[in-house]
Design the sequence.
């Protein structure tokens, strides 16, 4: 039990450290790219917050929709779009070389991988503890159940046959409706 709690604590700590560092890098890259293209400083931070938090929110939304059996298509497309937007901002701010692009993409990809692992993990249900003593009714013989008496069978009632509306009753040779 102590080992499991320690392992869980270390996992949360790693997630927080990687998430903080990747978030800081991604926020900075999106902000700097926005400002470099003529937007004010506050809009740069607003774009960074919108892009990065939308990716996290959409991941949570996909998980919630899967739990309830709702479709995830549009939300998945939006998640990919926001993740690519974040990644593109990081790569655009990098040194224009293959290694520059790879190094710039690492924080975003690491964070996306961690979010995917966390969001795709299914919480395990704690198994119910077995009682020490068997329940008394486990070994009892089942009580016979008397079948219900059959419902009485009624002869079919004769349907009353009425002439159609508009039939003249004093002329039996005329059949049908006279208008």
Sequence:
């Amino acid at each position: 039990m102590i080992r499991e709690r320690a392992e869980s604590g270390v996992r949360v700590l790693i997630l927080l450290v990687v998430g903080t560092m990747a978030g800081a890098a991604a926020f900075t890259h999106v902000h700097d790219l926005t400002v470099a293209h003529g937007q004010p400083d506050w809009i740069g931070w607003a774009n960074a917050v919108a892009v990065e938090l939308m990716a996290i929110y959409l991941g949570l939304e996909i998980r919630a929709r899967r739990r309830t059996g709702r479709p995830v298509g549009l939300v998945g497309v939006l998640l990919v779009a926001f993740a690519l937007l974040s990644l593109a901002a990081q790569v655009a701010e990098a040194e224009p070389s293959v290694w520059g692009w790879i190094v710039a993409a690492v924080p975003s990809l690491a964070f996306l991988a961690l979010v995917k692992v966390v969001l795709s993990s299914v919480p395990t249900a704690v198994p119910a503890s077995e009682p020490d003593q068997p329940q008394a009714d486990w070994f009892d013989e089942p009580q016979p159940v008397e079948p219900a008496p059959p419902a009485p069978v009624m002869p079919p009632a004769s349907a009353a046959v009425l002439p159609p509306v508009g039939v003249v009753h004093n002329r039996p040779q005329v059949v049908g409706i006279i208008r």
